[in-house]
Amino acid sequence: MPNNHNDGAGAEHAAHHEAHHAAVSSKNMMAIFAYLWILIVIPFLTETRKEPFVKFHLKQGLALIIFDVIGWIVAFAIGWIPVLGWLIVWLWWIVSLVLVIIGIVNVLNGQEKELPIVGKYGKRFDF
Question: What pLDDT shows up at residue 6?
Answer without folding.
Answer: 52
